[in-house]
Specification:
Elements (H helix, E strand, L loop, with lengths): L2 E4 L6 E3 L3 E4 L7 E5 L2 E5 L1 H4 L4 H9 L8 E2 L6 H13 L3 E4 L3 H10 L11 H13 L3 H10 L4 H6 L2 H13 L31 H4 L4 H14 L4 H15 L3 H7 L4 H20 L9 H14 L3 H13 L6 H4 L14 H18 L7 H21 L7 H10 L9 H13 L5 H8 L9 H8 L6 H35 L14 H61 L5 H27 L1
Parallel strand pairs: 3-5, 4-6
Antiparallel strand pairs: 1-7, 2-3, 4-5
């Protein structure tokens, strides 16, 4: 970093009882107050170079030694002392760090070339244009210094000139970069990489405050020279430097009032970064968007910003990894560790986005690939959050059910998540187990996983029965299919059998006749088997009908005999001869009916 040395005299300024003065044989005749500091100086040294002091001293008589109050001095007492030392010829060093307050103070004191050639303002402006603006880090440092004097810097054109110099250097092709820069990426060593990286400027620019950083980024974007991914990398570097981690942030929420001020500053930074993200997909990573989203709620960002983050994260959701989703819950009312609400919001937005882009296009390959990638991501995420002791079944099931059916080719990963959840939560009620396992489809499990599930003691009995039923049904279908395939293979083998030739070289018909005989035999046996099967089925049906008929006849006989006995009991007061005669007639009628049923059965 460059600097300018002015003056040759040694520094003879000293402090005595909160008063700054200079060693001299001449008595001080100029008193200047700047905030809490008082200066005892000499008019002979300062007035020839300071137009403001000339005017203020001319307004007062020489006999009066009235202090001059310059409380609005830009840069305060330090900047004024640099100007005073220049007037005394004391040796001073000017660099990009103290240039801004020095120039602003010199401008206020009117230390112009019109008063004296080679005055302080002229030397500072020459140093600014020839050294500071020509250097990369000098321009960054000078622009950073304008943060303390924004109005003065803007009015004097310092801010605009620094920004233009920085943008010009950023747009310079990397092979032409000759100045020093800061680049501390992990694994990068300048000795091994002779070429300049494309994002060489991002770390130095991240030292600026958010307003100045925004000015530079928006100016670069307006040129359309750099790719959006490079702009996104600059935003990522800035966010990593200024935004706190989620654990640190969560602990600071309940701290002192200073933390509220820090929260407001971080909220401003987050909202500004989101507004600067290029519209191009992939300009920033999905993990970066999810990290910003995870800290948006505790920082209290605006709903517009949060909605934009959810939308941007959902567009690139399939690119995320499980580690990108593992953020602790920031709600004070939520006891669970992982923030599943964040993942659910992004997942729902992802599905809405694809339905809007591809309405009804279920067979679209790109759509299916994206949804299945997201489905696999969610199942892997569920396997991690299932280990949370405080994870409620409702949130687990809600997240699993949000994935559409086309999002899972197999349910193996989902089964693993459910199995982990059941092991970690052994005290689940039957209703919760039923609800949890209800999202599992047995037919979508691979044979290995299905065999494990049948022996899983944590699964409810109903799920195990469904697995066994599906396994039995599948075995039956495979047996039938194998028989049909075997018959088909025999038929193809007979057709492909080569024909022989006789002694005269003519093709023989023996194989054809053998094939015809085999085919007739096979069809005949198949027809006989079918007829036997039909005959057995008819016999079974006839036997079943005969048994039913026999039961009905016996039931009818029992009912008739019972009714006759009841009638006999009611006529008990009749004469014994008549009673005997009626009883015999009733018995004969019952026997005749029974014999008729027997004849019908014999037929």
């Amino acid at each position: 970093m460059k600097f300018m040395k002015l003056g040759t005299r040694p520094d003879t300024f000293y402090t005595e009882q909160a008063t700054r003065s200079v060693v001299s044989d001449v008595q001080a005749d100029l008193v200047i107050k700047i905030n809490e500091t008082t200066y005892l100086l000499h008019k002979s040294s300062l007035l020839p170079k300071c137009g403001l002091l000339q005017r203020l001293c001319s307004d007062s008589s020489d006999s009066e030694n009235v202090p001059l109050e310059l409380h609005d001095m830009p840069g305060g007492a330090d900047a004024f002392e640099l100007c005073a030392k220049f007037c005394y010829g004391v040796s001073i060093n000017i660099s990009a760090h103290n240039f801004v307050p020095s120039l602003c103070a010199a401008k206020l004191l009117q230390m112009n070339e019109s008063l004296e050639k080679g005055n302080f303002v002229g030397k500072l402006e020459a140093f600014f244009s020839s050294c500071i603006l020509e250097g990369w880090k000098d321009s960054i440092a000078a622009l950073q210094a304008t943060d303390k004097l924004p109005e003065w810097s803007e009015n004097l054109g310092i801010t605009r000139k620094c920004i233009d110099s920085i943008i010009e250097k950023i747009l310079t092709p990397p092979p032409q970069v000759q100045w020093s820069y800061t680049y501390t990426r992990p694994g990068y060593t300048r000795k091994q990489h002779h070429s300049v990286p494309k994002d060489w400027w991002t770390e130095d620019v991240s030292d600026l405050n958010i307003d100045l950083f925004r000015c530079i980024i928006m100016a670069i974007r307006s040129t359309y020279v750099l790719p959006s991914q490079l702009i996104g990398e600059a935003l990522h570097v800035y966010a990593c430097k200024w935004l706190p981690g989620i654990t640190k942030l969560k602990n600071s929420l309940g701290s002192a009032a200073i933390t509220e001020e820090s929260k407001a500053s971080n909220r401003k930074i987050l909202e500004a970064i989101v507004s600067m993200i290029p519209a191009d997909r992939g300009s920033v990573s999905a993990g970066f968007l999810l990290r910003l989203l995870s800290i948006s709620s505790p920082l209290g960002v605006s709903p517009v910003t949060k909605t934009e983050l959810v939308k941007r994260a959902s567009i690139q959701f399939e690119e995320a990894t499980v580690s990108d989703l593992l953020y602790p819950s920031t709600s004070s009312l939520d006891q669970k560790f992982y923030d599943t609400e964040l993942v659910l919001a992004v997942l729902e937005s992802f599905l809405k986005f694809w339905k809007r882009i591809y309405p009804g296009a279920v067979d679209n390959r790109h759509l299916l690939k994206s949804i299945r990638n997201v489905g696999k991501l969610i199942d892997s995420y569920l396997q991690v959050v299932a280990r949370d002791d405080n994870m409620p079944v409702s949130k687990f099931v809600s997240l699993a059910e949000t994935v559409p059916a086309i999002g899972r080719l197999e349910h193996d990963d989902l089964y693993q998540a459910i199995n982990i959840y059941l092991k970690v939560h052994p005290d689940l009620s039957k209703a919760d187990k039923k609800r949890l396992c209800g999202i599992l489809e047995c037919q979508r499990l691979t044979p290995e996983v299905r065999a494990h599930a049948v022996k899983n003691e944590f699964l409810p009995l109903r799920t195990v029965v469904q697995l066994l039923y599906f396994e039995q049904e599948k075995d039956s279908m495979e047996t039938t299919s194998s028989k049909l395939q075997k018959s088909h293979d025999l038929l193809l083998g007979a057709k492909k059998r080569p024909a022989t030739r006789d002694g005269h070289g003519k093709r023989s018909l023996i194989n054809k006749e053998e094939f015809n005989r085999e085919e007739v035999t096979r069809r005949t046996s198949h027809a006989e088997d079918r007829e036997k099967g039909q005959h057995k089925a008819k016999q079974s049906d006839a036997k079943l009908a005969l048994d039913l008929e026999r039961k009905m006849v016996i039931r009818e006989d029992s009912e008739e005999i019972g009714s006759e006995k009841l009638r006999v009991a009611k006529e008990g007061r009749m004469s014994s001869s008549k009673l005997d005669l009626d009883s015999k007639n009733n018995i004969q009628r019952a026997r005749s009916k029974k014999s008729e049923h027997g004849r019908q059965k014999g037929r």
